[in-house]
Amino acid sequence: MIELGGNIKLINFDEVEPALLIVIKKVVGNYTKKISESIDDFKSIEVSLENKKKNKIHVKVEGSDVKEADAEDKNLFFALDRALGAVLKG
Questions:
Q1: How many domains does the chain have?
Q2: Which pTM value belongs to this model?
């Protein structure tokens, strides 16, 4: 598990190439800022790489309630964008 600050957790991203991980951290950080502004009592966000071969992403956001979203795509960044975007749209 990789922690970014106190409220962002990346789970199962330990084996991702360092160059890709830098971009993933930026994408997750930018979405987290938007999500934290739109959700009451934002506490934390967990982004999990559920299936590395299929790039299945699971996002869980804790605030006044819990929001979750899943996405899967051949491209890891598209899957990440879809899952985080789904949580942001609520």
A1: 1
A2: 0.92
Q: Are 24 and 10 in contact (CB under 8 A)?
A: yes
Q: Which domain holds residue 49?
A: 2-89
- CATH code: domain of residue 40: 3.30.160.100
Length of the chain measured in residues: 90
* Cα–Cα dist 22/33, whole Å: 17
Asked if 84 and 59 touch (Cβ cutoff 8 Å), the reply is: yes
Distance of CA 63 to the CA centre of its chain: 15
Query: Are the beta carbons of 30 and 8 closer than 8 angstroms?
Result: no
What would the pLDDT profile of 51-73 be if each residue is shown by its tens digit? 889 999 999 999 989 999 999 99
Tokens of 90: 């609520």
